[in-house]
């Protein structure tokens, strides 16, 4: 049945059914607002919007993956503050001709991602719209008083990165080319794994700054440098560049790792004496590898990349979807 | 300058400037998430999306009014739970050809509305989009342990309504007809006043159920009845129908009051012995009139309207923008 036949209230009723009973002491969909438990002190609050034709192409992604990713990009932002995701609301704009089943699958994808982190979708809004848009807002708990901002990096700090870089950008290119022999890369693009457990494992090591890699490693490290008034020197040989051996793609893996974006790995800085211990703590807790890729330097030095013994400028360029 | 020239990071920098410094102990725009203070216990959490061509027409509304309303509809939801709004994030999709100045005016409208209620816009996201969409998510504080849900109405309870009904729908029709002699009605449509102070003044009187009138009085009273398993009898003569005397509109004021929608007044139910005191408390605190318009009855009786001594069915029909 199509959404236009079900109508707003039929849709709300169906989504309440799918969501199941609320957590104890909470009120989820079906009232003017959701009522959710919050810890005393501070909470994390974020929103990310995904728009058809800009962030996704329905000929390349299905509704479950789309819902999953719309949630994952928000969860990743909470992880990048050292926090854990708790409750989300989702505002969606869809063409009324859409099938209810498709919309249910989209919600299931959001719920699947939230559920992996013990979070939940507790409400939302749906409107008719000529273009499909999914806007998730998420609240999360910080780690006690500790919130890891972007502005704490200090000269001498080690620069660390979880996982591998460039996998999402490579997966996107494979999807577009219709090449199906590297599903792992395609999954990295369609269903990024937010690094919540990694951020939790890192807490005791007190990182000085952290960001999730959405715009691209260089652009996001650039955000840390800008907010911290610092510079950076990165050793290309130490970057965890995704392997594209045997993949028929005409692109430079290092370029994808630096500027590809959407990896949703964590980039953090930390006092150099604690970097090895931090990497070890994360890998022991989660099996996710951590690479120490460079050092924070004085702001006047800007961002540099060492490639084959040569030092060159590292441009903080990334994907700017607003620039036409 | 156009947004496409300014780019995402230029935009973020400008919006941070406009937002001013964050409240003490908080972090607003510029990091992965905002960090905001929350009371211990529970918080209210809601989102509402507004889409061009569905919720607004740019030939009839300016950016300040649009931003104001996008915030007001969320604030109204928090008021309808008996709470006060605190912090909002806004996800916006816009055509890249849009002027930065226009977008700044939109933000200023959102901030103006939030500021009226001692709330603030603390972050957000902007994407390119072929259609203009504004999705605000808002957290608010409940009144201690008291949260006023839709499901608490009991037979015998009085049904009360703040302000006047039908003003927004009349204002919309005047706007479309280009009639400018009743600016108050047009303002009711473009800049609805969320009834936060009214909800606060009502707290001590312990309303049994409450909703804000967004879909239309009949539809929203219908939501209370459905959630409470109750019915309702409404006296048309007591409804605070907006006066359209002298207005050249070919419409029935009662029809607009019942089904027009977007009034953002509060409809609440309350034990009959406290209804007069509740109305008095609200009017004394805010000058907003409160009308006692009917009575909750057994669910089997459905919803009835008494007009000129005749009792007829009151259909819970409202605006369903998903139905094509």
Number of helices of chain A: 9
List the helices and strands of chain A in order: HEEHEHEEEHHHEHEHEHEEE
Return the structural class of chain A.
alpha+beta
Helix content, binned percent of chain A: 25-40%
Strand proportion of chain A: 25-35%
Number of strands of chain A: 12
Shape of chain A: globular
Gyration radius of chain A, rounded: 20 Å
Sheet having the most strands of chain A? 7 strands, mixed
Biggest interface pair, counts:
A-B, 79 and 79 residues
| Overall pLDDT level of chain A | 94
Assembly context of the chains: homodimer
Give a structural overview.
- The structure is a homodimer of 324-residue chains.
- Chain A is built from nine helices and twelve strands.
- The first copy, chain A, has helices at 3-19, 63-79, 100-116, 167-177, 183-190, 196-202, 217-228, 253-259, 272-286; strands at 34-38, 41-51, 84-94, 120-128, 133-141, 158-162, 209-212, 230-235, 266-270, 290-298, 303-307, 310-313.
- Chain A is of the alpha+beta class and 324 residues long.
- In chain A, the strands form two sheets. In chain A, strands 7-9-6-10-8-11-12 form a seven-stranded mixed β-sheet, sandwiched between helices. Chain A has a four-stranded mixed β-sheet with strand order 2-5-3-4.
- The interface between A and B is large, with 79 and 79 residues.
- Strand 2 of chain A pairs antiparallel with strand 1 (34-38) of chain B.
């Amino acid at each position: 049945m199509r959404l236009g036949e079900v109508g707003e209230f039929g849709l709300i009723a169906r989504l309440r059914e799918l969501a199941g009973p609320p957590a104890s002491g909470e009120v989820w969909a079906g009232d003017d607002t959701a009522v959710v438990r919050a810890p005393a002190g501070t909470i994390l609050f974020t929103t990310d919007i995904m728009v058809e034709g800009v962030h996704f192409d329905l000929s390349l992604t299905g509704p479950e993956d789309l819902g999953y990713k719309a949630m994952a990009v928000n969860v990743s932002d909470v992880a990048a503050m050292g926090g854990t995701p708790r409750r989300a609301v989702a505002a969606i704009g869809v063409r009324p001709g859409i099938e209810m089943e498709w919309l249910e699958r989209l919600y299931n994808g959001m719920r699947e991602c939230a559920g992996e982190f013990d979070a939940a979708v507790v409400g939302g809004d749906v409107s008719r719209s000529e273009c499909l848009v999914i806007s998730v807002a998420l609240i999360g708990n910080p780690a006690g008083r500790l919130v890891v901002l972007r502005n704490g990096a200090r000269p001498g700090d080690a620069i660390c990165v979880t996982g591998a870089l460039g996998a999402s950008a490579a997966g996107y290119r494979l999807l577009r080319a219709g090449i199906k022999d590297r599903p792992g890369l395609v999954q990295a693009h369609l269903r990024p794994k937010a690094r919540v457990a990694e951020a939790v494992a890192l807490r005791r090591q007190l990182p000085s700054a952290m960001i999730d890699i959405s715009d691209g490693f260089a652009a996001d490290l650039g955000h840390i440098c800008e907010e911290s008034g610092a510079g950076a020197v990165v050793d290309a040989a130490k970057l965890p560049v995704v392997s594209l051996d045997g993949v028929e793609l005409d692109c430079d893996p290092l370029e994808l790792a630096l500027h590809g974006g959407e990896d949703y790995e964590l980039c953090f800085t930390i006092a150099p004496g604690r970097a090895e211990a931090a990497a070890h703590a994360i890998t022991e807790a989660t099996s996710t590898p951590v690479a120490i890729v460079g050092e924070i330097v004085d702001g006047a030095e800007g961002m540099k990349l060492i490639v084959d013994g040569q030092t060159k400028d590292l441009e903080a360029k990334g994907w700017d979807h607003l620039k036409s």
